[in-house]
Fold each of these.
Amino acid sequence: MDWREGAKKRAALEAVKHVQEGFIIGLGSGTTVAHAVQEIGEKVRLEGLRVLGIPTSHQILKLAVNCGIPLTTLDEHPQLDLTIDGADQVDGKLNLIKGMGGALMREKIVASATKQLVIVVDETKLVEKLGVNQPVPVEVLPFASSIVMTKIRELKGKPVLREGKNKVGPVMTDNGNFILDVNFEAVDDPGELDVKLRLIPGVLETGLFVGMTDVVYAGGRTGVQKLLRE
Ligand code: 5RP
């Protein structure tokens, strides 16, 4: 296992310590959260922990099912106790860029409905300023993608339609939409940019998660940093 994989796992195991009996848990997406889902599954199978999970992607739904975690829906449980998710960048105020796994829309919906949002990353994801060497993923309605790209250029962003790997043409999200990866070089005011982007008709959600995170666990080569929102 390379050090980053070990770091991701250590961070994920710290996050799982927030899980309590009877919790409704939002299950984010990505390779770091996968470690947390596996650990929760072990507790369900071996310790009889009773929790219900709400997955944010097909990736995590399948993993949760394989791990034996019982699932529920936002219709049955509109308020979650805890959500554990990954991130692509985390700044000093615990604002995030998310969505390189393409699950940003469901992730933000679940994060908005949770009492506590715990983010798990390896420490390479900690940055001073969001958007440096990292595009902002934006989920868009396919019908509107061309005009959304034009309007994003007016905001000084450089949008690229995300292309599939081992599939020709654009990536389709779990919601049947496209993703634009938008390079802004640096994001000075993530809250303002999030609002401006979401005001463009055809933009469904952005990967800017502002003021939502409660705790970040950032795994390093040996330990795990715990960062709390001020
Ligand atoms: C998916 C996400 C992921 O949480 C994010 O891309 C981090 O993934 P990983 O833990 O694999 O680095 O936002 O939409």
Amino acid sequence: MKTTESKNNTSKKETIERGVTKPKSNAASGLTELFEDSLKDIYWAEKALTKALPIMLKNASSVELKDAIDNHLTETEEQISRLEEVFKIIGKKATAKKCDAMEGLIEEAKGLLEETEIGVVRDAAIIAASQKIEHYEIATYGTLRQFAETLGLPEAATLLEQTLDEEKGADKILTEVAVNAVNLEAAEIE
Ligand code: ZN
Ligand code: FE
Ligand code: FE
Ligand code: FE
């Protein structure tokens, strides 16, 4: 197999197999750094959500859905403060780094608004897009909590678990709104 030679930051010679992505000069070398980078990513994502959720709120018709989104907007603001506390625990300044995944999920949500008539059908689309967002967050906070535990940061782990539980709660409420109020009606429109 053909290989390319490169030097890593310890200047030790390293062989990188073809097709394997070469790390950037500032690439994370330990779990602490990966934890910090992941925090920056979700910090950006949560901030982006505080701008996207009001758009979803404005476009929702069902009172149940509006309440769910409004409530989650308040939670999202608290989640941002919680992340700032976690940054404090690890002695780092809270910094946001663009989350490509959340940018895409929000883009998709906005696209769905244009592609649906206002009312129950748009509501069903908002729920679908929001649940994709919640699942991304659930995966992220699950990982972050585990990283914090492994790194011996129990306070950070507790904060991240609080948010994880909120994300799971938000997802569950969205399912309930879909099942109880929105989807049946949307199906009747056909
Ligand atoms: Zn993210
Ligand atoms: Fe969140
Ligand atoms: Fe991300
Ligand atoms: Fe959320």
Amino acid sequence: MPAKGSFSAKLSKIGLFPHDVKVERRLSDLRKYFYDKRAVESILSRGEDPLIYVVYEIGREREGELNVGCTIIYPGKIGDEYYFTKGHFHVKEAGEVYLGISGEGLILMQDRYGGVFTEEIRPETIVYVPPGLAHRSVNTGKNELIFLAIYPSDAGHDYETVDRIGFAKIVVERDGKPTLIDNPNYRGEIK
Ligand code: S6P
Ligand code: ZN
């Protein structure tokens, strides 16, 4: 039984304890994704390496089963860009459902030609990620953004394409508000 009030207890409430995978992503893992390279290097050169997000996951093997992942993106910014997840395409044409648990944020969804649209992730809201779209989540709030992701166990994750071309849009703070702008480092349409 997880300790009362602990994060494991919260995961237990949403059916995710015990999880079998825990992934931690720090700034050093995401250095090439944030657009403000000077801000990234200045933080890392001070010996700091902030934790950006954590994923707890129950992975399953059999075709037809569903994986469940719980992501926590911590609040914060690198320069003026809000903390986010790496982002990926699924290898198979597999859709996914996100369920907001707490905090506030956005999910960016991008097609293979750089067309991007966003949806809000908020408590008790569901976002459908259609097959074939890269997706990245962004914490635009002052607290942890926590959400569940439910997707086919054989969906697979393609991070390489996002590594290569990036997202066409990024989310930065402008006049105190989250604002979607063009990514100066976007490397164009996928060939
Ligand atoms: C899995 C789903 C999420 C992400 C998680 C971390 O298909 O979309 O569980 O894995 O939010 O993002 P990323 O891009 O590092 O996998
Ligand atoms: Zn996904």
